[in-house]
Design a protein that fits this description.
alpha+beta, Alpha-Beta Plaits, 4 strands, TAT_signal, Dabb, Dimeric_a/b-barrel, Stress responsive A/B Barrel Domain
Length: 137
Amino acid sequence: MEDQSRRKFLQNAGLASLAAVSPVAAEPERSKELFIHHVFFYLKEPNNAQHEAQLLEGLHKLAKVPAIEYVHIGKPAVTSRPVILKDYTISWMCFFKNIIEEEIYQTHPIHLEFIEQYSHLWEKMVVYDSVGPKKVG
């Protein structure tokens, strides 16, 4: 009976130790995966060229956040396959070395200023974040 209690205590102590260490142990994994942040902006007035130009101006400013490795700003392509969504106005895709860099981007003053100065232009935005190995193949 005493042996089982001791074993149970050691198991629980081991689990507690693992829980305390796991966030630290997971940190190297967080720094290994490429992080892609893809945002689709839906302007309130999608046919307003001035609003589109303002959003593009803001995105070019946003591209200066140092944590960003690569940026692509685009519009819907002229394609006609039924699986392709083309209902957005502007697409913003940026690549980060890892999720840690993306978290830095989210709280960077340039990003916060972008939201403050330009969010009145869009009615909604859709965000797709993905992670994966830095090199495939």
